[in-house]
Design a protein that fits this description.
heterotrimer; A alpha/beta; B mainly alpha; C alpha/beta; A: alpha/beta; D-Maltodextrin-Binding Protein, domain 2; 5-stranded mixed sheet; 16 strands; 16% strand; C: alpha/beta; Rossmann fold; 2 domains; 6-stranded mixed sheet; 4-stranded antiparallel sheet; 8 helices; globular; transport (chain B); transmembrane (chain B); cell membrane (chain B); ABC transporter permease subunit (chain B)
């Protein structure tokens, strides 16, 4: 999972204020424009005259200050400073949650309160009824809500992916001898929501093992916070759930971690940050600031050295309400697996905001496969409408983070390659389906 | 001599209290002893095993590097002392607000009681009016009775998804659930009380040529008051029973919500605490109700 | 023209059971037929009969609680069909509002009779009648805390307090113990002699009727009860129980009435 750095600018100076960062971005943009993309020439110029002199020289021929002032003006044009963002208390929402106590929202001029919901249906209802301004969602949800599957059709946008990986299949301790899908026939599973990566990954995994997810096993919807209690009570045999509920099951001696979702699809998207199209068009400056805050927070969370601090910040009752040790194990990747072993998997959960269009296309093919979608859908068109890959790129670039050249790529799931350009054929290529 | 019988009666009145206290103390002692654990022994465990135990929160390491059982994590039901500690902890932060999702127990009680009061009081007004109308008119009673019989047994929680869909506001939905739970017992009892007023009272009212309104206020309502209060009592219990799950399902902050959150986190001490709080709130409100009832009861 | 005229009043009820073997025909049940009684202003008239002869029903018709099947009741020139303050009733079961004190019960009635009066005036008037019935000191008590005798005193005070044209007494002392009964009866006589109300009472207590009334009417047993005779009680007033029982007239009247009652539904001709 690597992304090439297509362009290089000087890195953002550390510990900078919003104004300084904005100034830096504008300077970079002007320099780029002057050298017309000739990176070699640009670098040689900078090395020759030194960065600050370069800026002084440029100022003589270009109204840099005006440009900076204009850019700063934009930042001040936030229409709505007091915002609410809803979340489910899972580690997937780490960037959304940590942005409050760690000041990322404040840094971009916003006063955001994060509001905890107890289930995905509530998240959906709050979002549709405009009880909140932006929300944590499962990555299929912006697609399903925009298409009107399982809810009234309201156009939603997904500017950023919250996290990659970060889930696992956890089984009850009495199933220690299970080796693969064939041993899971007759099991009762639960997933957080019908339109979730958890559901689609679980179904994919079971189907690849020759088990039909609707005929040979039961899959129920249970809100994530209730999953551990249900497992402990023996109501379910296992689940594919977001963390921290896999680690929590180990903590509570209720289950063991059978398989990380990373081992199904390394780099799969999980949760998303979403806003309604109405919000983005009514409050464009606010939306922009929010988008920046999220991208900022996501990149901060991506760095391994920050993970421990983040675990402490989001553990309290007001956020995830979990013991710190559980969150640390999830975020640092050094964890007890419930079978007596200690494992080290640093990418157990990863954060990268870029919403690949190809991810959306994969989700749509699976929705079609399991009949969550009726009728024919132009996969590429819908993906582009909902997943704002280009915008995310722009923001990331403006904040000095690496950007991507392409909006789509191929993905490998359980050893099988998915090519987004062959989406329709892919959706029909499976022996086990509901079509 | 009066003194010996006086002593005996005093003794008799204190006996039940003493027995209750003894029972309580005995139960608590047995409960506490059943949950006592010996100190943690680190010998014979490998570093990896210790690490696993620490990761699972079973043991904690103090600053001196020594291991002990984690007091915040119990297997099975915690002892009463854990519940006491939890109670002290919660009440010391009773009115704090650590962010939108974590309000102190004082606030939570206030939310629950407010929600409950809004639903119960509005339902009571509507129910008494409806009950009086039905009780006074035989035709109306027969016309409305089938609907009432149909709607009465439906659990108010079953209405919740429909309410949420139409009302869309979770706070208002919670109030509506309490409203529906409090409606039917009061309607039934009020109608019964009104239609079963002793004929002579009504005859006196007609002799005195009281207007319809005066008859209602001066004779019908006071005469039916004990039945109305009885109905309100039942509704009250019903509403209290409904507000807790309504909060759980709607994610509205409150005491019911607290119970659910603690269950999700398998904090048994927290669940016991939440149960105690719900019980205490119920008992307090019920006592207030008794006062009210005593004001309007009369003996024939 | 009598003050209160009960003119050929009959009462029929639809029968509970239909006639056997005859489907679709509704039998009616006749309680009493062609009852005719004239009461002059200021007279105290008592109706005596066995239980079930319909005397309470007749009183209810006069009070306006029930309708006559045929015939009518005329009070002071106007026909009466519904209850009103002009015909106040004293009930066998006292019918006091148990949530109101004795004083409040009487005040309720006074207020109803004089809607425009100020509350002070209402209170004073109520107190007057309470005192007249010997209830001074017990006004604040609720009926549950009063003995049967006291309760009926309140009932009487209430009835007098509205100053009705006619007082209707429905076996008023039947639920009071024998000893208290005597005391209240004498008080009633005293009250009545002062106020001179027109009174119509129904009872099955012979001594009470002789003590209190100017005239007694006798009703046969039901069904199809009839009012067969009425005669004056010519024992001079003021009457007390003690003085009365030694007179010949008392003994004569009493025996006559008892014979009538014991013979039941026979039409008894004799005195008058």
């Amino acid at each position: 999972m690597s992304h090439a750095r297509e362009d290089e600018g000087t890195p953002t100076p550390p510990a900078s204020t919003p104004e300084e960062r904005l100034t830096h971005s504008v300077e970079q943009a002007v320099v780029q424009a002057i050298f017309g993309g000739n990176a070699v020439a640009r670098r040689r110029f900078m090395q020759y005259v030194g960065a600050s002199s370069a800026m002084a020289i440029i100022r003589t021929v270009f109204p840099l200050d005006t440009a900076i002032a204009l850019a700063q003006e934009q930042g001040k044009g936030i229409e709505k400073k007091e915002l609410t963002v809803s979340f489910i208390p899972i580690t997937c929402a780490t960037p959304i949650i940590m942005a409050e106590p760690m000041g990322f929202y404040a840094r971009h001029g916003l006063n955001v309160t994060v509001r905890r919901a107890s289930g995905w249906a509530m998240i959906r209802d709050w979002a549709i009824n405009k009880e909140v301004d932006a929300t944590h969602m499962l990555s299929p949800m912006p697609l399903s809500i925009s298409l009107g599957a399982g809810s009234p059709a309201v156009p939603f946008l997904m500017p950023a992916v919250e996290n990659l990986n970060g889930q696992a299949i956890t089984l009850h301790l009495k199933h220690k001898q299970v080796k693969g899908p064939q041993d899971m026939k007759g099991f009762r599973f639960c997933v957080p929501f019908d339109y979730s990566m958890h559901n689609y990954l679980l179904r994919y995994y079971l189907a690849e093992g020759g088990v039909h997810p609707d005929k040979d096993v039961q899959i129920r919807v249970v809100p994530p916070p209730e999953m551990v209690a249900n497992l402990k009570a023996g109501n379910v045999d296992g689940y594919l759930a977001p963390d921290p509920f896999n680690q929590r099951a180990v903590y509570e001696n209720a289950g063991f971690i059978f398989m990380l979702s990373k081992d199904i699809w390394d780099g799969h998207p999980c949760c998303a940050f979403a806003v309604s199209q109405e919000f983005a068009t009514t409050y464009p400056q606010t939306f922009l600031a929010l988008f920046k805050a999220i991208v900022d927070a996501t990149h901060f969370a991506a760095k391994a050295e920050n993970r421990k601090a983040i675990a402490e910040a989001i553990a309290p009752k007001n956020y995830l309400n979990q013991p710190v040790t559980v969150l640390e194990q999830v975020l640092t990747g050094k964890y007890a697996d419930g079978l007596g072993n200690i494992k080290e998997v640093p990418d157990r959960i990863h954060f990268d905001p870029f919403p690949w269009h190809s991810m959306a296309v994969w989700i749509l093919t699976q929705m079609k496969r399991w009949k969550h979608l009726e009728g024919d859908v132009d996969y590429q068109k819908v993906a582009e409408q909902v997943y704002l890959a280009a915008e995310c790129n722009k923001i990331a670039g403006a904040l000095g983070y690496p950007v991507h050249q392409h909006m789509s790529t191929t993905h490998t799931i359980l050893g099988k390659v998915f090519d987004p350009t062959q989406a329709a054929a892919y959706a029909r290529s499976f022996p086990i389906h509901n079509l | 001599m009066e003194t010996p019988s006086l002593d005996r009666s005093l003794h008799a009145s204190r006996q039940p209290l003493l027995i209750s206290l003894c029972l309580l103390i005995l139960t608590l002692l047995v409960w506490q002893l059943a949950t006592v654990r010996p100190a943690f022994q680190a010998q014979g465990l490998t570093a990896e095993q210790l690490q696993t135990l620490e990761f699972n929160g079973d043991i904690v390491r103090n600053s001196a590097g020594q291991y002990a059982y984690n007091p915040d994590k119990t297997r099975g039901i915690p002892g009463p002392w854990a519940v006491v500690r939890k109670t002290v902890e919660e009440f010391s932060q009773a009115f704090h607000k650590h962010g939108t999702n974590d309000h102190g127990i004082g606030h939570l009680i206030r939310y629950t009681v407010t929600r409950f009061a809004a639903g119960f009081l509005s339902a009571s007004v509507v129910a008494v009016c409806l009950g009086v109308l039905i009780g006074l008119s035989r035709t109306l009673y027969q016309a409305l009775n089938p609907f009432i019989q149909l709607l009465k047994p439906i659990s108010p929680l079953a209405w919740m998804p429909l309410l949420l869909y139409t009302v869309q506001n979770p706070t208002l939905t919670a109030v509506c659930v309490v409203f529906l739970a409090s409606l039917w017992p009061t309607v039934a009892n009020t109608a019964f009380g009104v239609s079963n007023i002793r004929k002579d009272y009504l005859q006196v009212a007609s002799l005195l040529q009281l207007s319809w309104w005066q008859r209602l206020l001066r004779v019908v309502l006071p005469a039916a008051a004990p039945a109305i209060i009885a109905g309100l009592r039942i509704s009250f219990g019903s509403a209290l029973v409904a507000v807790v799950p309504a909060e759980m399902l709607l994610g509205e902050l409150g005491v019911g919500y607290l119970t659910w959150i603690e269950w999700n986190n398998l904090h048994i001490a927290g669940i016991l605490f939440a149960i105690l709080v719900v019980g205490a709130v119920g008992v307090t409100l019920d006592a207030g109700f008794n006062r009210l009832a005593r004001l309007v009861t009369y003996t024939e | 023209m009598a003050f209160l005229s009960i003119e050929r009043v009959s009462k029929y009820f639809p029968s509970q059971e239909g006639a056997t073997g005859r489907a679709g025909r509704q039998e009616t049940f006749c309680v009493f037929r062609d009852v005719d009684l004239r009461i002059e202003k200021g007279e105290f008239v008592t109706l005596i009969g066995h239980s079930g002869c319909g005397k309470s029903t007749l009183l209810n018709i006069v009070a306006g609680f029930e309708q006559a099947s045929s015939g009518g009741v005329i009070l002071d020139g106007k026909e009466v069909t519904s209850p009103g303050l002009d015909r106040m009733v004293v009930f066998q079961s006292f019918a006091l509002m148990p949530w109101l004190s004795a004083a409040e019960n009487v005040r309720l009635a006074v207020r109803a009779a004089h809607p425009t009066w100020a509350s002070g005036q209402v209170g004073t008037e109520a107190q007057k009648y309470l005192d007249m019935m010997g209830l001074k000191g017990a006004e604040q008590k609720k009926p549950a805390f009063l003995s049967g005798g006291m309760r009926q005193r309140v009932g009487l005070a209430r009835a007098f307090a509205v100053q009705p044209k006619v007082l209707l007494l429905d076996e008023p002392f039947a639920q009071i113990d024998a000893l208290t009964r005597g005391v209240i009866q004498e008080e009633l006589v005293r009250m009545w002699s002062e106020t001179q109300h027109t009174v119509f009472m129904v009872t099955h207590d012979v001594d009470e009727a002789i003590l209190l009334s100017d005239r007694i009417a006798l009703m046969t047993n039901g069904p199809e009860a009839r009012l067969t005779e009425s005669f004056a009680v010519d024992i001079p007033r003021p009457r007390t129980r003690e003085t009365m029982i030694d007179t010949d007239t008392y003994t004569r009247l009493r025996n006559h009435i008892l014979h009538f009652l014991m013979r039941g539904s026979h039409v008894f001709s004799g005195m008058q």
